[in-house]
Amino acid sequence: MAKNPRPLLGLAAGVAAGLVASAAMAAFQAQTHKLLPDSGNTDEDPATVQAADAASEIVTGDPVPDAYREQAGQVVHYLVGGVLGGIYGVLAEYKPEASAGFGTAYGIATSALLDEGAVPAAGLAPAPTDTSLVTHMYGTASHLVYGWVLESVRAMIAGRG
Q1: Is 17 exposed, middle or buried, given 0-12, 13-18 or 19+ CB atoms closer than 10 A?
Q2: Nearest CA among 3, 4, 6 for reference residue 157
């Protein structure tokens, strides 16, 4: 346990860092995606858009209109990134070892929990056993970028414990 944890600073730093890390992750994915073989699943909406649809259907009874689908998916991406960043920021205040690997351990944990667990369990992606190795590696690498940038920005704002 840290000697003098600062949970509010950790939360603020984590949310801000999570948003920046989400942008870095999106940029990494946009460039890396060009190198990947064509999966043939061009008709399938990304999990973030499917999640936005689910939320929209709960609130309005209708899916996100076509004109706003891409933006709605981005909102979900940044919302999740900010929330996970806030959790990380508070966690790092109480348990500095949470920043192991300069945030990459947290990045791998988010990949395992989200890409391999929660997203398929929610029906927003195929089961891990039905997903190609290339897709698994792409997701893990993306979350490594997220974790590293998350800790970089969090440490600049809140300092290293």
Answers
A1: buried
A2: 6
| Centroid of chain to Cα 16 | 13
Nearest to 47 by CA among 112, 124, 100, 99: 124
pLDDT in tens, 2-39: 789 999 999 999 999 999 999 999 999 999 988 887 76
pLDDT in tens, 85-103: 999 999 999 999 999 999 9
For range 111-133, the mean pLDDT: 94
**Integer Rg of the chain from CA:** 17
Joined together, the tokens standing for residue 70 give: 């891409």
| CB-facing half-sphere around the CA of 148: CA atoms within 13 A | 9
- Assess contact for 86 and 157: CB atoms under 8 A: no
Largest CA distance in the chain: 52
Query: By the 8 A CB rule, do 113 and 47 touch?
Result: no
pLDDT at 136 over 90: yes
Question: To which residue do tokens 């994915």 refer?
Answer: 29
Query: For the chain, what percentages of helix, strand and coil (3-state, to nearest 5) are there?
Result: 80, 0, 20
**End-to-end CA separation in angstroms for the chain:** 10
